[in-house]
Write a structure and sequence with these properties.
- There is one protein chain.
- By secondary structure, the chain is an all-alpha fold.
- The protein has two domains: about 60 residues, Arc Repressor Mutant, subunit A (Orthogonal Bundle), CATH 1.10.10.60; about 140 residues.
- Helix content is about 75%, strand content about 0%.
- Helix 3 crosses helix 4 and helix 5 packs parallel to helix 9.
Length: about 210
């Protein structure tokens, strides 16, 4: 199967659809199956079946389950890096720090299925995050967490402020995971999570990041 044909099949026989859509569609379906039956029990054939494509078409994009996992963890890490780069370029004001926290909340909400996967498949994640090309993704995520905390409360801030900043960052992901199924209105949960995290960090109500 040539590249165009494989792309067309994986897109659901819709030529011209952006390639990024296909990649995200595969990631989303894989995450659904991993959540339903566990990472170890899910095969590439089952992912292809849920997508309605051949295994060969799926193989064009990803050679293994491990490749799929690495792809969505790398996407998540890149989004965090972009947010951190934005935060570093801003003046250290309450408004910019509140916007940083709101931006982090946006990423967590969008990538919540990834966070759930990381939390529910820790044994597989430990192997995948430490054995690929010598890059320790667990260390990377910890560094990103610490950088976000430092942008909210720099190293010369009081211990109380740094603890509050750490709790603010942690509360975003934890609250989204714990209460997503309980929220009738996702917008209400989003507002509660942002307001609570801002209160923990001693910041004003968050503003949207441009």
């Amino acid at each position: 199967m040539d590249e165009d044909a494989a792309e067309s099949v994986a897109n659901g026989s819709k030529p011209g659809r952006p390639r990024g859509d296909t990649r995200e569609r595969i990631q989303a379906v894989a995450l659904e199956l991993f959540a339903e039956q566990g990472y170890e029990k899910t095969s590439l054939r089952e992912i292809a079946g849920r997508l309605g494509v051949t295994k060969a078409a799926l193989y064009y994009h990803f050679k293994s389950k491990e490749d799929i996992v690495r792809s969505f963890t790398e996407d998540y890490a890149r989004e965090l890096d972009a947010l951190i780069a934005w935060g570093r370029d801003q003046p250290r004001t309450e408004e910019s720090r509140a916007a940083l926290l709101a931006g982090y909340s946006d990423i967590v909400e969008r990538r919540l299925a990834v966070l759930r996967f990381l939390e529910q498949n820790q044994a597989a994640v430990h192997h995948l995050m430490t054995e690929h090309e010598g890059q320790d993704r667990k260390k990377l995520f910890r560094q990103q967490f610490e950088t976000l905390r430092d942008l909210l409360a720099p190293p010369d801030a009081t211990l109380r402020d740094r603890v509050r900043a750490s709790m603010a960052v942690v509360s975003v992901g934890l609250s989204c995971m714990l209460f997503k199924s309980d929220a009738v209105d996702p917008a209400e949960l989003r507002a509660i999570v942002r307001d609570t995290a801002s209160e923990l960090a001693g910041l004003p109500a968050p503003a949207s990041r441009d």
